[in-house]
Every structure is written in C-alpha cells, then in structure tokens.
Amino acid sequence: MSRSDRFLNACRGEPVDTTPVWIMRQAGRYLPEYRAVRARHSFLDVCHQPELACEVTLQPIDRLGVDAAILFSDIMIPLEGMGCRIAFDPGPVFAEPVRTAADVDRLRPAEPEADVPFVLDAVRLIRRELGGRVPLIGFSGAPFTLAAYMVEGKGSRSFENLKRMMYAAPDVYRALMDKVTETVIRYLNAQAAAGAQVLQVFDTWGGILSPADYAAYVLPYSRRVIAGLDRSVPVIHFVKGCGLLLDLVRQAGGDVLGIDWHIDLADAIRQVGGAFSVQGNLDPTVLLGPESLVRERAAEIVAKGRAARGHVFNLGHGILPMVPPENAEALVDAVHEAGRR
Ligand code: CP3
User: Fold this and answer.
1) Position in ligand 1 atom list of the atom nearest CA 29
2) Catalytic one of 12, 29, 133, 223
3) Is-above-0.70 flag for pTM?
C-alpha cells in the first residue's frame, strides 16, 4: 500500500497502512513560501489564476508529507458566478449584502464551466502536477454557511440579519437557499468531473442554531447537496460545532463526518457507529505549544480514531497563521508514527 491510497481508503472504511492526515488551510499564511506568493499577488489573483492556485496547493504536500492535497480557492468563489461582488480583507466582504426578495431574485445559480472555468482548470492542472503522489480534494461551502456570508455581507458574531430573514421572511430565506443549493451541487460535480477525487462540504456556521432549527433550516439543503453528487467520489461533511448535532448531521449522508474539538473523538465515533468514517479533531491552537505536546495530543487522537470505520486525522478547524511550520511537520510525522498498523 502506498501514500496515495491511505486517504481514499480511510474515507471508504477500507484498510490503511497508517492513519492518513491532511490539515485544513494547509496552504496558507503560516508557510513562508505562501507569504512570498502573496507578497506579489492578491488573494483573489491566486484564486483566479490556475498556475498560482496550483503552485500554492502543492507547497505543503512534500514539505509536510500530508496524504491529500486540497484545491486552493475559497468557498466564496462560486458566489461570484451567482452575481455577487466580493473583496477579501482578509475575510470576505460583499459589496451588496443579500437582504430582500428583490436581492434574491437578482441572483442566478452559477454555471461552473462558464462562470468559474479557472477553478476547473486549476483542478486539472493540480492533478497533472501531483502525478498521483496524493489524491486531490475539491470543496464547497455548504448552502447555510454561504447564505450566512451573503446575507450578513461579512463574518458575524450573532448573524442577526440571517436569522431575521429565517424567522421573519422564511420564503425569502428558502428562495435564497434553493439557488445556493443548486449552485453548490453543480459546482461540486464540476470539480469531480475535472478530476477532484474527494469532495468536502464546509458548514462553518452550521453549529450556531438549535437542533430544531438546524433540522428545519439547514439539514434539508445539506442533504439535497450530498444526494445530488456524483456517487463515485467520497464526500466529507464538516459541520463546525457538530458535537450536539451529530444525530442530525449524519442524516445529511456522505462518507466521512468532520469533527471539531468540542467533542471527544471517542464519543463522536460511538454516536455515528459504523456508518461513517470520521475526520479530525485536534484543537488548532495545540500547534502553538511545544513539539512534545503536539506529538502527545496527536497520538491520543490517533488511538481513539482506531475505533472508527475509518479515521482521517485533521485539525478541528483551519491551521492558524502564527503556527511554526516545524510543528505542522512534527504533527504529520507523529500521526504517521502513532497510526502505523
Ligand atoms: O484548506 C485549504 O488549504 C484550501 C483553501 C481554503 C481557503 N479558504 C483559503 C483561504 C479553503 C478550503 C477555505 C474555506 C473557507 N473560506 C471557509 C470554510 C472553512 C473555514 O475556515 O471555516 C470559510 C468560512 C472561508 C471564508 C474566508 N476566507 C475567511 C473567513 C477568510 C479570512 C480568514 C483568515 O484566516 O484570515 C478567508 C480568506 C482565506 N481563505 C485565506 C486563505 C488561505 C487567507 C487569505 C490571505 O492569504 O490573505
């Protein structure tokens, strides 16, 4: 068995030689070689130009020894194809937040090959440059997280505009979610057709609702997305804050559940049983501690992950810009050592 098999096998619950590992935001500001590219190009330029996206996608692969590559892009990119104008500072800022029925009417579901061809060109180029070393992950935001940014116009603490729309104008909310859901399905299937070998759905804000509201306002759309995807490609569903929602999140389907660090991985595995593989779940700030602590915490999570159908090691959210790259390298090494079968 080779490095290129372990990630796909773990996603499908098949045997592995050791626990596979990749890191959310593994191409990013903690790497000096990423900052060097960003000194010459804006974030959006890197997303829009396949050669640049390919260059930064590959940066962490051999340096860290991770078992998967993830397309360098952002979850906001397909929304440009729906007609949104977005800047980054450093997070997304929408020129015209979506607040009314008329705003929703103006949006159109994106056509990936016509509206964001550079993403699909990047997927094809990255596959070629990877030469089979490791599989490539494509991704999208989940409809709820995308709608949260569209309605708020930027990140938010309390999401009052989004929740006002949900509760006071449910028809507008549902019309928006229908258009975003259609965009996400087309966008993910286009990435798979271009060569993405696994698809990850990021629902960063799925955990801000009560279980009843998650079931009513989020789950139907996430389930529709996963049901609409090409069945031959494993799907990772990551809902940040999923610890108290696992029984609902599992109903959306998929092959792998992404788990953040607010729930013990052993508890999460007990709840999702044999039906899913799991991905996670180290607290990203552990990488600010000494290397000995990084190795110790990694080994604990790897040991818990052995009870799962399959375990893909990851952080519980993205790597932070101030992490020393040596600690990320030590993490990957520690996972491979502790996970050896
Ligand atoms: O994981 C990877 O390496 C792939 C690339 C990737 C980026 N964003 C690059 C990025 C992925 C998968 C994302 C997803 C994304 N983007 C999410 C979902 C996952 C999560 O982190 O919750 C969200 C909510 C966004 C929206 C977004 N984009 C925010 C909030 C920010 C600013 C955050 C920050 O760290 O400052 C961005 C910008 C962004 N996206 C950067 C990167 C590397 C930093 C931009 C820079 O270089 O200046």
Assistant:
1) 47
2) 29
3) yes
